[in-house]
Amino acid sequence: MKIPLLQVLTKKEHKLVKGYQVTKNSVINHEGDLCENIGVIISGKVDIVSYSFQGKEQILNSLKAGDIFGNNLIFSSEPIYRGDVIAKEKCVIAFINKENLIYLLQNNQEFLTLYLKAQSDFGKSLNARIQLLSFTNAEERLVYYASKNDNVITFKNVTTLAAQIGIQRETLSRLLTSLVKRHLIKKEKGKITFLKKRR
Description:
Blueprint: H1 4-7, H2 11-14, E1 18-22, E2 27-29, E3 37-43, E4 46-51, E5 57-63, E6 68-69, E7 84-87, E8 91-97, H3 98-107, H4 109-134, H5 138-147, E9 152-154, H6 158-165, H7 169-181, E10 185-188, E11 191-194
Antiparallel strand pairs: 1-8, 2-7, 3-6, 3-8, 4-5, 4-7, 9-11, 10-11
Helix pairs in contact: 3-4, 6-7
């Protein structure tokens, strides 16, 4: 996949980027690690997760090809990962360390523009995630998540969707059954469509 942020680099600048293959379920960074690089996902999917004291996994962010991680930390006064960065499938990731990142931002105007856009998009995504997790009611959380996806949710399975929106699998299963009975959703294999409420 062509990644715009990397496409604008010159041949010389490409030497500042280190690409690596990462196997499925590998922990790229552990919670508490110092952030010394940004990672640009060239292919594959990455989740940033945290864990409760009971060991329950909470997905903080889900990233795909073209997305960046570490960018919100590397220039922070406390550049420490607040969750594990995990490859959810086989990935190719390009890493740029802080020194090289500063050089690219100072010397490549196109790179700077695309990086700032990525920062802005990341901020919007993070704010949406925070708002999602602020809902304590499971139905409100699911409805909000659907509203950010044009009222259609595609998902691999109920367990994955439950982790994505931060509720228990059993709670989500009961909720989906209730919403179907109330004619508020249409549930198909791997797809949930929210319907207009009946008056």
